[in-house]
TrEMBL record:
This is Tartronate-semialdehyde synthase. GO terms for cellular component: acetolactate synthase complex. Keywords: Thiamine pyrophosphate. One of its GO terms (biological process) is L-valine biosynthetic process. Signal peptide: none annotated. SUPFAM superfamilies: DHS-like NAD/FAD-binding domain, Thiamin diphosphate-binding fold (THDP-binding). Residues 388-541 form the Thiamine pyrophosphate enzyme TPP-binding domain. InterPro entries: DHS-like_NAD/FAD-binding_dom (IPR029035), THDP-binding (IPR029061), Thiamin_PyroP_enz_cen_dom (IPR012000), Thiamin_PyroP_enz_TPP-bd_dom (IPR012001), TPP_enz (IPR045229), TPP_enzyme_TPP-bd (IPR011766). Residues 192-328 form the Thiamine pyrophosphate enzyme central domain. It catalyses: 2 pyruvate + H(+) = (2S)-2-acetolactate + CO2.
């Protein structure tokens, strides 16, 4: 075999694994990889302004494509800056590979410039963190990195490459190499039959679809099972889009924050929950004694250690979401269908009555009105990105979703600033799509520097900001738990930070809205302006400063009448 630079082999592996864009920040220790990318071509590169931004861009790209996203950084602080993105991807089961440069292997024990044990730092927030010790290992380590990122419960991998190792040549032939197989996990036939027994015996069953249904490509199988058996389907926050919101069997989202009131009531009246690809996160379950009640649970997950982690189910099944649902449907077709008409009618009745208003005309603007306008203006093919805080909670309450992978949210880790870089990743994944980031006034500035990336590379999207001039969720927690109002006020003059001028400083555009009737015209302007300039555009909406959301320690705390 011919001898080639080790990094040429790595770039060939990346391309063969379906990587057509990478997000990174070049530096001295990683330049051998960049030189290989320049020689190879075929992989677009966006130069980020902060390495955390590269991980969130790769994250958004991976959530949208279902493939493994790639982020690149150099040595030292580049790797440590990536840790938040690795944690975010791990928490939400998103497959990304982060590549870091490293000081020369002969200097690592001497505290060389920017030498840090990034493998040890990253291990708690990755599926695998590894340093390439020998150049000949490089292509095989990267093949294994992609296999691990995709297999089982997906997640992040970090590969660290000392500069001397990256600069070496190896023997390798791309023509005889290919991606490593990712094994599928089929369910036990006996477990499928037992799950079906429990489902058919229930009078008020629900299917609970988590992020694993979307990540596992199981949305079509979910719909087929639900329609065949006539069982209502609820989603978790990470599962939004697993079944269209306007489907007759859609039963909403239960929780203590991101929730619908009618969904909570439906859940409380259920007698069995078939949870597929869901983690039973605490913002979904609330108080476990209320959540569990007298109902029975079947928990299906590809990761064995998820079963029983929060509470012991009546039946646990280890399987791919898609393979389980397909097997369940095949088994159900050999049985008599249950008569669940009364239960479906009850869920439909709750959906029609336990609603929240989203049409208020008051000034200051109510948050619900913003999402009412978003729902009316944007079509079902729009991709939405949102992060953490009151605006995420309102989004979960009000925002409609119709397609899998079209509602992207950093659900578990909740890093502020995720939206802008994630929106860049989403837009690069589907360049022709309309992409909208729903942001808060505080989160907006955490990674605002990545606007420069979108402006430089002509990555257009719209940002809809809900600005209450506070750290809203923290202010609420202070008031409820401590009786204080301390260091959560963000405005220091008429507006605080002038977010419109910030946009303009990055070569983008923005408008500030104070009247509810101006929201739709502003969204129309933003769409046209973003298309015209091929850059991000901001619609900043000043909402009521006292805006709160109903929530409590248990899911029965949010079914009371909603104040308007």
């Amino acid at each position: 075999m011919a001898r080639i630079p080790a990094m040429d082999a790595v770039v060939a592996v990346l391309a063969a694994e379906g990587v057509d864009v990478a997000f990174g920040c070049p530096g001295a220790a990683i330049l051998p990889l960049y030189a290989a990318m320049a020689r190879h071509g075929g992989i677009e590169h966006l130069t980020v302004r902060h390495e955390e931004g590269s991980t969130h861009m790769a994250d958004g790209w991976a959530r949208t494509t279902g493939r493994v996203g790639v982020a690149i950084g150099t040595s030292g602080p580049a790797g440590t800056n990536m840790v938040t993105g690795l944690y975010t991807a791990q928490a939400d089961s998103i497959p990304i590979v982060c590549i870091t440069g490293q000081a020369a292997s002969t200097k690592l024990h001497q505290e060389a410039f920017q030498a840090v044990d990034i493998v040890s730092i990253a291990e708690p927030v990755t599926k695998w963190a590894v340093q390439v010790k020998e150049a000949a290992q490089a292509p095989w380590i990267f093949r294994e990195a992609f296999r691990r990122a995709r297999s089982g419960r997906p997640g992040p991998v970090l590969v660290d490459i000392p500069v001397d190792v990256a600069s070496a040549e190896i023997e390798w032939d791309a023509e005889v190499d290919e991606p490593l197989p990712v094994p599928e996990v089929a369910p036990s036939p006996a477990a499928v039959e037992r799950a079906l027994d429990l489902l058919l015996a229930a009078e008020r069953p629900l299917i609970l679809a988590g992020g694993g249904v979307i990540g596992g490509g199981a949305t079509d199988a979910l719909r087929s099972v639900a329609e065949h058996l006539g069982v209502p389907v609820q989603v978790t926050l990470m599962g939004k889009g697993a079944l269209p919101d306007d489907h007759e069997l859609h039963a909403g989202m239960t929780g203590v924050q991101t929730t619908q009131r009618w969904a909570n009531q439906s859940f409380l009246e259920s007698d069995l929950v078939l949870a597929v690809g869901a983690r039973f996160g605490d913002r979904h379950t609330g108080a476990l004694d209320v959540y569990r009640g007298e109902r029975r649970f079947v928990h299906v997950d590809i990761e064995p250690t998820q079963l029983g982690r929060v509470f012991g189910p009546d039946l646990g099944v280890v399987a791919d979401a898609r393979l389980f649902l397909e097997a369940l449907l095949a088994a159900a077709r050999t049985r008599s269908r249950p008569d669940l008409a009364a239960w479906r009618d009850r869920v439909a009745s709750l959906r029609a009555t336990l609603t929240r208003r989203d049409d208020q005309d008051t000034v200051p603007i109510k948050p619900a009105r913003v999402f009412g306008e978003i729902n009316d203006f944007y079509g079902p093919d729009t991709y939405f990105v949102t992060a953490i805080g009151l605006y995420q909670i309102w989004s979960g309450m009000y925002q409609r979703t119709y397609r899998p992978r079209h509602y992207q949210v950093c659900g578990q880790a909740g890093p502020l600033g995720w939206e802008i870089p994630a929106a860049i990743g989403v837009k690069k994944a589907v360049p022709g799509a309309e992409v909208v980031g729903v942001v808060g006034d505080y989160s907006f500035q955490f990674m605002v520097e990545e606007l420069a990336v979108a402006a430089q590379y002509r990555v257009p999207f719209v940002l809809v900001m809900l600005n209450n001039e506070y750290l809203g969720l923290i202010r609420q927690a202070q008031a409820d738990g401590f009786g204080i109002n301390y260091q959560v006020d963000l405005h220091y003059d008429e507006f605080g930070s002038d977010n419109v001028k910030i946009m303009e400083a990055y070569g983008c555009a923005g408008r500030r809205i104070t009247e509810p009737g101006d929201i739709r015209p502003a969204l129309e302007w933003a769409r046209k302006e973003s298309e015209r300039t091929q850059r991000p555009v901001l619609v900043e909406i000043m909402i009521e400063r006292e805006a709160n959301t109903a929530r409590g320690p248990a899911i029965d705390a949010v079914i009371e009448p909603e104040p308007v």
